[in-house]
Give the backbone structure.
Amino acid sequence: MSGFMIACLLAAAVAGFLVLLYNRLVALRQTRLNAFSDIDVQLKQRYDLVPRLVETVKGYAAHEKGVLETVTAARAAVGTAASGAGSERLQAEGALGGALARLMVVAENYPTLKADGNFQNLMNQLSGIEDKIAAARRFFNNATNEYNTGVQQFPANIIAGMFHFGTEPFFDVSSDEKAAINKAPEVKFG
């Protein structure tokens, strides 16, 4: 076998390896985008549910105007955030989640509201959606982790740099959501 043939085979093997790396990065990016699409469906349902929930609470908790305005503003921010899985959208969704958590804390202070059938139905729907969002977030964050790892590992990082594959943000719990989660619930009797 001549040196030229060996060089051609070696070049073909290297080229094939680079194509495999590139295709793997594309597949990881698509998996991440697909995972966010799953979240997006649940977030849209939550987004559509918020006005009904706010209107139900308004009748019972009129003096909690600030909380209701925060929820409404957070929902509006989600509506104006750039679509896709960028950090602006992820932050807006996190703020809406935190505002909804504060709304639930307010609702705890109104026993008649908690007993209202319409409110209970909306809360059950919201609870189901939030559970689905949590599961979809876990899947999305796993896909993001795999993608980011693929982009940063050698030798794929060379291909990633050449074709502008960059690391992507995770879908984290916002500071508002963390505060609401960590707040001890009030227990009132009678």
